[in-house]
TrEMBL record:
<dbReference type="InterPro" id="IPR013512">
    <property type="entry name" value="DXP_reductoisomerase_N"/>
</dbReference>
<feature type="binding site">
    <location>
        <position position="153"/>
    </location>
    <ligand>
        <name>Mn(2+)</name>
    </ligand>
</feature>
<feature type="binding site">
    <location>
        <position position="129"/>
    </location>
    <ligand>
        <name>NADPH</name>
    </ligand>
</feature>
<keyword id="KW-0413">Isomerase</keyword>
<feature type="binding site">
    <location>
        <position position="128"/>
    </location>
    <ligand>
        <name>1-deoxy-D-xylulose 5-phosphate</name>
    </ligand>
</feature>
<dbReference type="GO" id="GO:0030604">
    <property type="term" value="F:1-deoxy-D-xylulose-5-phosphate reductoisomerase activity"/>
</dbReference>
<comment type="pathway">
    <text>Isoprenoid biosynthesis; isopentenyl diphosphate biosynthesis via DXP pathway; isopentenyl diphosphate from 1-deoxy-D-xylulose 5-phosphate: step 1/6.</text>
</comment>
<feature type="binding site">
    <location>
        <position position="187"/>
    </location>
    <ligand>
        <name>1-deoxy-D-xylulose 5-phosphate</name>
    </ligand>
</feature>
<dbReference type="Pfam" id="PF02670">
    <property type="entry name" value="DXP_reductoisom"/>
</dbReference>
<dbReference type="Pfam" id="PF13288">
    <property type="entry name" value="DXPR_C"/>
</dbReference>
<feature type="binding site">
    <location>
        <position position="232"/>
    </location>
    <ligand>
        <name>Mn(2+)</name>
    </ligand>
</feature>
<dbReference type="GO" id="GO:0016853">
    <property type="term" value="F:isomerase activity"/>
</dbReference>
<feature type="domain" description="1-deoxy-D-xylulose 5-phosphate reductoisomerase C-terminal">
    <location>
        <begin position="149"/>
        <end position="240"/>
    </location>
</feature>
<feature type="binding site">
    <location>
        <position position="15"/>
    </location>
    <ligand>
        <name>NADPH</name>
    </ligand>
</feature>
<feature type="binding site">
    <location>
        <position position="16"/>
    </location>
    <ligand>
        <name>NADPH</name>
    </ligand>
</feature>
<dbReference type="InterPro" id="IPR036291">
    <property type="entry name" value="NAD(P)-bd_dom_sf"/>
</dbReference>
<comment type="function">
    <text>Catalyzes the NADPH-dependent rearrangement and reduction of 1-deoxy-D-xylulose-5-phosphate (DXP) to 2-C-methyl-D-erythritol 4-phosphate (MEP).</text>
</comment>
Amino acid sequence: MTAFQRIAVLGSTGSIGESTLDVIARHPDRLAVHALSAHSRMEKLAEQARASGARVVVVPDAAARERFLQAWGSDAPLPQVRVGAQALADTAADPACDTVMAAIVGAAGLPSALAAARAGKRVLLANKEALVAAGSLFMGAVRDHGAELLPIDSEHNAIFQCLPHGERASAPTRPAAGVRRLILTASGGPFRQHDPELLHGITPAQACKHPNWSMGRKISVDSATMLNKGLEVIEAHWLFAMPQDRIEVLVHPQSVVHSMVEYEDGSVIAQLGQPDMRTPIAYALGFPDRLASGVGLLDLARLGRLDFEAPDLRRFPCLQLAFDALAAGQGACIALNAANEIAVDAFLRERLPYTRISAVIAETLEWHAGRPSVTLNHLDDVLAEDAAARAQAEQIQARSVPAGR
Ligand code: NAD
Ligand code: MG
């Protein structure tokens, strides 16, 4: 890895995108923005492009391009404005950048993340849905094209930090030697102690109010249902080549221990820090060096205690659904993720009650179990399976009673 990195931040207007730009701006001697991408907030994108000196921006369509140009309103040289999903994938593979931050939310981020891996980039992967939908394809691309994969999800970044590794990140084909289990911590979200009977009337604002982390709306709802932790078990399975029965979920309400690795000799190594995504982002940008991130000190004396408990699978049915999908195989994982994206979107638009999110996923998984199995060796196969599952989940969701009626 050259010391100076030119970076494409895909999904720059999101929560992870903003934290990434914050860290990059702290290190002008070794980090620079090459490209930015956003789906909707064009004013924000223009502001970010001006501040970072991005050479390229990627927007979804011609109307967004117009809005971006209107928002530019500056004498500074206009960045090149690229349009559409293919331009996004091409930008991820652009020879003018070294590193790609994959921070688009949902399976929509899969083609560009895969393009970055196939171009042999240093890939900073925040987009966990890409691994859930296409873990084998993605990890194969990382290996075949000599890409460098660094996990951004705080738990996986923590595990990566606790595992033995050399100067270069890679895509393992077997569990690291001497490791017994990976222990993924989970905050339990805003409803950890809620009476399940009272969850029906939960509003999007309540579900998005996470006790420890400030994140995008979709992942905030996923954290409330704990499907997020299920997606992360699948993510850990692929990233670290770890069998499902050696990945443990542990509820830890303070979100200070970000995850742990248990070794054969009984040692458990943990990574701790404030719940601020700039730490894992700075780690991945600097790897193998350590960079200042702007994150404050961890004051354990002030915190006083750290609590742990086993997850309650009856309270969080989505977690069990994710375990079931991983055991069932890749097609089921695609269906799980697609159904969740549909259900969470409907919940956020107040078209689906909170408690029906798990039901939409469960019914979509049942539908999937009755389908003939298909090969999923190519991106097109994955996208077709994803589209079929979305269509099915839409139908199931539409049959549900709208929220609050
Ligand atoms: P967010 O909603 O804040 O931002 C999403 C970004 O993706 C935005 O820039 C948006 O414009 C872009 N986008 C949305 N739909 C798109 C589409 N169809 N095509 C292209 N671009 C699109 O989300 P976030 O919280 O920053 O999360 C991003 C990813 O990182 C998710 O996969 C999430 O699971 C993962 N992640 C986030 C956090 C966190 O703290 N926010 C932590 C761990 C992992
Ligand atoms: Mg996480």
